């Protein structure tokens, strides 16, 4: 018999109670905050049972860092068996390891969804055992949501690279979007920082998802049973490894050839671990560089730009002072100024400051009447940068000058002085990297 | 001649129909809900709201100016901008005379006002699809309160009926005292609604609210702290009804 003494009793480490839901949610959402993707668009799921998606996606809130919250973004578990140098959840870190059960997480998603807090679930996980077991547990959560709760909201699933083909296939049937993070811009860097991961395995996920999607769609179309098109995305860390912007954009150009890949996200590296292979803790994340890469990314996808147009020959990094479109225009002043009333859509899209929406407005308005430059403001076109590159056939632009003079006019005073400070607060209100209007 | 109506959307549609057909000599529009004092010097004609006639106006305009037009008109009207009614009548009259392409002439001030009023309402509506917050009451009904700038609550029905198809929900515009009641696939609009002073919340409500607040706090990345950017997307006027923007309450 043990003498019962309430004073000397201390719980053994093995008997520590699992933290309550509140504490686990704090840990597992905090661990998921490095994933940049939060899109909930492109799906038109609806049916009997709660939940539906909205084609353009809906943002439900914005966190204190200004990023939108659309999905309940959590890890199922943060107990990782890998030891990737850049990751806060790596095996060698002395962190509290917790996890949700599939039932718990599905229930929480429904509670949040019914209060209109979220658009759906973004589910990722640390690899707590082998990839297949981890993936099975993720899929079990999705199954509870889709089959037990008959939930038709948005689900974004992170595929665990290295899991078997059948599980990816099951994922395409349950989720609206799949993703797998490429993590780093080159194979070499991945080998150095995440020796347990293989780039080949990550890229394989995209091909598997495409394969099972096509397989499913080659059957006679039965609208109700078909999953909506699986959009895929990926993410890479910027500034942890020595790759220059040219290498990164080349790699991204390659990635966009992958089937189903719709979006690459960039994540400025925030040092979380002390590791000789990485920048030191306390270094501020290269937010400005990330911002310029996002802008270049939009140019690749929606403005028919080529990597070699975005960067001049021999130029390794994007211009820190100027957005890549303005930088291109300054190198090609022979194309400007162009006539608002006669330029083609492609030409208009190349004007700095005219985004896809502004161009559509101009095209629509000029069908009725010829436009003056003053009219453009009334259309809601922002003329801050565009005015140097446009004319209306009546008057030449106010100040069409040499490359140097234009650069002076386009770069704000404050930024010219602080051009090396990557954290300059001047970019706080520039949302072009998010909206894609350049 | 002054045309007066009851301030509702169907009322305005009737007024629009009469202004274009019966009373082309109209000069002003008066909203009876705002001021009931009749004018002493100008002749005034009150237009009574007739739902069948309003339907006819909608289908007629839809045939002539495209199916999207009545929808856009309703959005522009619901912006509740000062003096928007006469502008909408003029724009519609001109589009009927010169063809629907005149609605694309964005450099014209009238067309611009019409398009931007419709755009503002549509934007606020889309914003609220995300920013509405429901609380669960003791009787399992989910309640959301909101004070939008434009009268957008009537446009929200289809969206929430589709996603909340297995729960009862209410959205109350406390500024206009208008409410949408939803149950299953159906919803209805009620006027003169007030929220009771003593609401009984569901037992689980406080816990879920705390979970959400905790999630909101931890999903933000402190190294990227940027409150200006947040305010740009989520204007402060909506914060009073946002669960996550309320200070944390101690758990009972």
User: Mean pLDDT across all residues of chain B, rounded?
Assistant: 92
Uncertain segments of chain B: none
How large is the radius of gyration of chain B?
22 Å
Strands in their spatial order, largest beta sheet of chain A: 3-4-5-6-7-8
Roughly how much helix do the residues of chain A carry, as a percent range? 25-40%
Based on Cα principal axes, name the global outline of chain B.
elongated
Order of helices and strands of chain B: EHEEHHHHEEHEEEHH
Strand content of chain A: 5-15%
Count every helix of chain B, treating DSSP H or I runs of 4 or more residues as helices. 8
Please state the CA-atom Rg of chain A, rounded to the nearest Å: 25 Å
- Derived from helix and strand composition plus strand pairing, the structural class of chain B reads alpha/beta
Q: In percent terms, what proportion of residues of chain B is strand?
A: 5-15%
Q: Tell me about the largest β-sheet of chain B.
A: 5 strands, mixed
Q: Using DSSP, what is the number of strands of chain B?
A: 8
Question: What shape does the CA trace of chain A take?
Answer: globular
Can you describe this structure?
The complex is a heterodimer of chains A (438) and B (252). Helices cover 37% and strands 10% of the residues of chain A. Chain A is of the alpha/beta class. A six-stranded parallel beta sheet of chain A has the order 3-4-5-6-7-8. Chain A has a two-stranded antiparallel sheet with strand order 1-2. Chain A has a two-stranded parallel ribbon with strand order 9-10. In chain A, helix 3 packs parallel to helix 4. Chain B has 252 residues and is an alpha/beta fold. Chain B is built from eight helices and eight strands, in the order βαββααααββαβββαα. Chain B has helices at residues 9-21, 51-65, 68-78, 84-98, 109-131, 157-163, 205-219, 227-233, and strands at residues 2-5, 28-31, 44-46, 135-136, 141-146, 168-173, 178-183, 186-190. In chain B, strand 1 (2-5), helix 1 (9-21) and strand 2 (28-31) form a beta-alpha-beta unit. Chain B starts with a strand and ends in a 19-residue tail after the last helix. Chains A and B meet through helix 1, strand 1, strand 2, strand 3 and helix 2 of A and helix 5, strand 4, helix 6, helix 7 and helix 8 of B.
